[in-house]
Amino acid sequence: MDERLEELGALQAAFAGRARIQQWAQGAELLALLQAASDTKALGLLTRPITAEALATVSDITTDRARRIIEVLQAAGVVRKAGDSSLAYVLSPEFGALHARQAHRRAHRP
Questions:
Q1: Cα–Cα distance measured from residue 34 to residue 91, given in angstroms and rounded to the nearest whole number
Q2: DSSP assignment letter at 78
Q3: Phi then psi for 51, rounded to 5 degrees?
């Protein structure tokens, strides 16, 4: 009986470790997406309400890709709908403030 409890405990620990690694991987993917969105100026464009179609046009990417980027960023809490019935999206208040701070730092570098 003790062996079975030990095996169960080891299995639970392995599942917990796996879940943590999956969280890290998801975090790394999100960071990579944020970096790519920043590199393509998409984050800067999302400081004001913008539709996926307009984001695609300005960023020179497909509308489908712009929608997927917005969906992932929305799921992560980085962007939100600009209004309840709006088709436009904008950075969430937290990420808007973070982006503004980083833009301010870049503008004031020697």
A1: 12
A2: S
A3: -85, 165
Distances (CA, A) of 79 to 2, 21, 41, 85, 104: 50, 25, 14, 15, 20
Are the beta carbons of 91 and 46 closer than 8 angstroms? yes
pLDDT, one tens digit per residue, over 59-107 is 888 999 899 889 988 988 899 999 877 899 999 998 888 877 776 676 7
**DSSP H helices in 1-92:** 2-39, 42-45, 52-59, 63-75
- Map tokens 């695609």 to a residue: 56
pTM, two decimal places:
0.66
Quick one: which of 60, 53, 68 has its CA closest to 39?
60
**Amino acid occupying residue 92:** S
Residue 21 to residue 37: CA distance in whole angstroms: 24
**Mean pLDDT calculated for residue range 12-36:** 85
